[in-house]
Amino acid sequence: MTKASRPAKRIQVVSLRMVRERTSLLYPQRKITTPKDAANLFHQFIGNCDREVFCIMTLDTKNQPTALHEVSSGTLNASLVHPRETFKLAILANAASIIGCHNHPSGDPTPSPEDVELTERIRDTGSLMGIDLLDHIVLGEGNFISLKERGHP
């Protein structure tokens, strides 16, 4: 085959861009100002899950949600959460701060001693990294508890 009879090679260039979805459809106010705002948004994200799920909401410098992430999914009454996985997602989302949330499938949002300990670990890790933990919300059946309002974060 001569050079003239060979088919020309096509080079296809693919451009990848990271696209950030706005939460405006899910949360039209665009700013988290109260624990109730965060709880409502998390409830839409987690729903009525039959096992414990720990999630974070990443926020920009104006407390506008930039992303919701599921960090861990556990069992009926426990979820293994490590600050490493929590802040990996926050760093990748370029978060200024985060709000943590998990559900209690039993319906009772009363925080356990493990919930309080987790809140303190995430708070301390975040302060080292410059990413503040604004709150940790525990969802129950139709209600929630803010650990910040209880003096924990």
From TrEMBL:
The keyword Glycoprotein does not apply. One of its GO terms (molecular function) is metal ion binding. The keyword Metal-binding applies. GO terms for biological process: proteolysis. CDD domains: MPN_DUF2466. Keywords: Hydrolase, Metal-binding, Metalloprotease, Protease, Zinc. Pfam families: RadC. InterPro entries: MPN, RadC_JAB, UPF0758, UPF0758_CS. Residues 31-153 form the MPN domain. PANTHER family: DNA REPAIR PROTEIN RADC (PTHR30471), UPF0758 PROTEIN YEES-RELATED (PTHR30471:SF3). Belongs to the UPF0758 family. This is DNA repair protein RadC. The lineage of its organism: Bacteria, Bacillati, Bacillota, Bacilli, Bacillales.
